[in-house]
Amino acid sequence: QVQLVESGGGLVQSGGSLTLSCATSESIAGVYYMAWFRQPPGKEREFVGSSTNNPSVYYAESVRGRFTISRDNAKNTMYLQMNSLKPGNTAVYYCRRGVSQAYWGQGTQVTVSS
């Protein structure tokens, strides 16, 4: 089974930045759909943004203009650059690979304080 491992989370102050990484055990060069999701405390998992190999990117309205998704296919890694973080962005962030046949990482905790 494909393995995905998120990293880069931590505690940051409001207005700060973090870059999350999603390292995969298999090549992502030919993977059409990669995405980031998050699960805030007490809420359901929600979509953050996606990257396809068209190429194109799409972001949830709540993060558009502040978050940036990129891929490094040579390293089989997807990134999420998060700027201007707010306390409401506190969540466990997850990496997703694929659509109909989807694989998930275990998540990395991001906590934003003020």
| Residues in helix, % | under 10%
Instruction: Provide the structure class.
Output: mainly beta
Order of helices and strands: EEEEEEEEEEE
* Head-to-tail CA distance between termini: 40 Å
Rg of Cα set: 13 Å
Mean pLDDT: 96
- General shape: globular
Percentage of β-strand residues: over 45%
Tally of alpha and pi helices: 0
Query: Segments where pLDDT lies below 50 for 5+ residues?
Result: none
Number of DSSP E strands = 11
**Biggest sheet overview:** 7 strands, mixed
Describe the structure.
- Strands 2, 4, 5, 6, 9, 10 and 11 form a 7-stranded mixed sheet that branches.
- The protein has strands spanning 4-7, 10-13, 18-24, 33-39, 46-52, 56-59, 67-72, 77-82, 91-97, 103-104, 108-113.
- It is built from no helices and 11 strands.
- A hairpin with a 3-residue loop joins β5 (46-52) and β6.
- 0% of the residues lie in helices and 53% in strands.
- By secondary structure, it is mainly β.
- The protein is globular.
Spell out the key features of this protein.
globular; mainly beta; four-stranded antiparallel beta sheet; 114 residues
Helices and strands, with pairings:
Blueprint: E1 4-7, E2 10-13, E3 18-24, E4 33-39, E5 46-52, E6 56-59, E7 67-72, E8 77-82, E9 91-97, E10 103-104, E11 108-113
Parallel strand pairs: 2-11
Antiparallel strand pairs: 1-3, 3-8, 4-5, 4-9, 5-6, 7-8, 9-10, 9-11
